[in-house]
Amino acid sequence: MKRRRVQFTATARRHVLRERDWWVTNRQHVDAFTSDLDRAINLIATLPGVSSSYTRVPGMRRVFLERVGVHIYFTFDDESVIVRAIWGARRRRGPRLADAP
Questions:
Q1: Hey, is 12 helix, strand or coil?
Q2: Is residue 70 within 8 Å of 87, Cβ to Cβ?
Q3: What's the fold here for domain 5-88?
Q4: Among candidates 62, 55, 51, 72, which has minimal Cα distance to 8?
Q5: DSSP SS3 for 101
């Protein structure tokens, strides 16, 4: 199995910081977000096709982190995975996905 390089857009980096800060402030298991995110990143780096299509944006995929209630939105090719957003699954709309890595 080939491991792809994983990059985060500026938007996705902001989302990670926001979610991490929320978990530190509001939850007892402060490491839940970071450990689940790390596992998901490792998964999509090696097996990006296990995710589901996000049909609103052609080529976009997403994976759901059930314990923390967020989706990771990303695109990929043979060489890399680009994480576009980390977005709460309970929100009524999807994230804005306009920026480059």
A1: helix
A2: yes
A3: YaeB-like fold (3.30.2310)
A4: 72
A5: coil
Q: Is the pTM of this model over 0.90?
A: no
Annotate 17-86 with DSSP letters as a single string. HHHHHHHHHH-S-TTHHHHHHHHHHHHHHH-GGGSEE-TTSTT-EEEEETTTTEEEEEEE-SSEEEEEEE
Local structure of residue 96 (DSSP, 8 states)? P
pLDDT mean across residues, the chain: 87
**C-alpha 7, offset from chain centre:** 11
Cα(52)–Cα(61) distance, integer angstroms: 6
Q: What is the pLDDT of residues 72-85, one digit of tens each?
A: 999 999 999 999 99
